[in-house]
Design a protein that fits this description.
Blueprint (H helix, E strand, L loop, with lengths): L2 E4 L5 H11 L1 H7 L5 H4 L2 H10 L1 E7 L2 E11 L2 E9 L8 H12 L4 E7 L3 H9 L3 E9 L2 E8 L2
Parallel strand pairs: 4-5
Antiparallel strand pairs: 1-2, 2-3, 3-4, 5-7, 6-7
Amino acid sequence: MCTIIKAEYDDLSEILKLQYLAYQSEAALFGSTDIPPLKQTLDEVIEEFKSGVILKMTDKGKIIGSVRAGEQNGTVYIGKLMVHPDYRRRGFGTRLLTEIESIFPNKRCELFTSTKSKENIRLYENLGYKKFREKEIKDELIFVYMEKER
């Protein structure tokens, strides 16, 4: 049985390793590893840990999923939702997203993904998120921003 709890400082290195693994599929969509999640440093993850909430999902003591969020001006910004490739398509992403939302009740939630990430967009829409903006980052990289009013 997989459990979701708040990550601890000592988990951050393992979460970053999972991030590098989990985001390979995103990189493949662009044919490049030059995407922010694959360039993030441990120090940057530590800063996110200090300023927000990082959840971890574990299975038999191994971290197999994670998500982060922080609140600013009444909006919860959710990011780095990831599940180990061996554990995908089992509802774990849904569980992680639902759990991080529950930490910030009655708040507007916002997240973003690439327009090429059709599975991510479908997941978010199924959970009540609506597209409200697109932003071209570079070349073929376009982010779609999604929100959920609660």
